[in-house]
Design a protein that fits this description.
- By secondary structure, the chain is mainly alpha-helical.
- Helices cover 91% and strands 0% of the residues.
- The longest helix is centred in the first third of the chain and has 78 residues.
Length: 150
């Protein structure tokens, strides 16, 4: 009777140990999958960074050019304030400068959002990497239970 009780308790111990180890293995595999997916997203975002930076610089240059043209048209109009042709031209240049500056602000915001997304992904990857390292360290010292169950 003692043998049966002893063998049963040992069997349950091994069963619980293997279930806990499988849970840790599953959790670590899920972390590896998350890290891989996030690294893929990060690579795509980093590939967009150069183009977004170029778009912002181009938009800023265009906005500055439009502002200069608007200033020139306004100066010409101030020399001859009754000239309808110059007034229309100055009005059109002012509208162009306004839309170009709005476009430059949007491009700047897009670049800032991209940089924030890259930062957030890098931080999430680092956090998941840290968690995975805990599983690895835990697996080397104690394969029966993951860190969060201790």
């Amino acid at each position: 009777m003692r043998k049966v009780l002893l063998l049963t308790s040992i069997g349950l111990l091994f069963l619980c140990t293997s279930v806990s180890a499988q849970k840790a293995n599953t959790d670590s595999l899920a972390l590896v999958a998350k890290i891989s997916a996030d690294q893929l997203k990060l690579g795509k975002l980093q590939n967009q960074l150069e183009q977004k930076t170029k778009n912002k610089e181009d938009a800023l240059d265009q906005a500055q050019k439009s502002a200069n043209e608007n200033s020139d048209a306004a100066d010409k109009l101030s020399d001859d304030p009754d000239n309808k042709k110059l007034a229309r031209k100055a009005n059109n240049k002012a509208g162009d400068a306004k839309s170009d500056s709005k476009n430059a602000r949007k491009e700047s915001e897009r670049l800032d959002n991209l940089k924030k997304a890259i930062y957030d992904l890098e931080r999430r990857i680092a956090d998941n990497q840290f968690k995975l390292n805990k599983y690895i360290e835990n697996g080397r010292t104690d394969t029966t239970t993951p860190q969060r169950y201790k």
